Amino acid sequence: MRVKKLVMRLSHLAERVVPGLLTCAEADRFVDDYLEDRLEPKVRRRFERHLSMCPPCRGYLEAYRRSLHLTRAAGASSPAVMPDDLLQAILAARDAEQRD
User: Fold this and answer.
1) Residue 19 DSSP code
2) Which has the closest alpha carbon to 11: 43, 58, 45?
3) At a CB cut-off of 8 Å and minimum separation 6, what does 71 contact?
4) Dist. CA 92–CA 98, nearest whole Å
5) Among 34, 32, 25, which Cα is nearest to 56's?
6) Cβ atoms of 96 and 88 closer than 8 Å
7) How far apart are CA 4 and CA 67, in angstroms?
8) What is the DSSP letter of 81?
9) Mean pLDDT across the stretch 39-45?
10) Per-residue confidence at 10, pLDDT binned at 50, 70, 90?
11) What are the sequence ranges of the domains in the chain?
12) Are the beta carbons of 65 and 35 closer than 8 angstroms?
């Protein structure tokens, strides 16, 4: 646990010392676009620079990548379509509950 705290402290120090370095919170916002190859080259370089200096974010990226892979392999990448009769039953139950 001490190592993780040290890494986080060093990461925060590096954010102040290296101009243009992304914070972990900023890097988190780019994970999906990075994996889908939708980042502009300049942002991609900044993101990869952060990853090179931040083991926790590298671990997070790999876990995120595995989650996407498993989700897609399970066929859950496309949203499920709710049958119209089920939707109508839910709405009717909600309306009935609101009247009571």
Assistant:
1) T
2) 58
3) 77
4) 10
5) 25
6) no
7) 23
8) P
9) 95
10) low
11) 2-99
12) yes
Is 92 a residue whose pLDDT tops 60? Answer: yes
Query: How confident is the model over 18-33, as pLDDT tens digits?
Result: 667 888 989 999 999 9
The encoded tokens of residue 71 equal 């989700």
Give ∠ CA 19-61-73 in degrees, rounded to 5. 155
Question: What is the predicted pLDDT for the residue at 85?
Answer: 87
- Tokens 């009247």 sit at which residue? 99
Please answer whether residues 63 and 76 qualify as being in contact, where contact means their C-beta atoms are separated by less than 8 angstroms: no
- DSSP letter (8 states) at residue 21: P
Task: Judge whether 56 and 7 are in contact, CB under 8 Å.
Answer: yes
Q: Are 55 and 63 in contact (CB under 8 A)?
A: no
Does 11 have pLDDT greater than 60? no
Stated pTM of the model: 0.57
**C-alpha angle 52-56-24 in degrees, rounded to nearest 5:** 75
Q: Which pLDDT value is given to residue 15?
A: 53
Which residue in this structure is represented by tokens 């986080």? 8
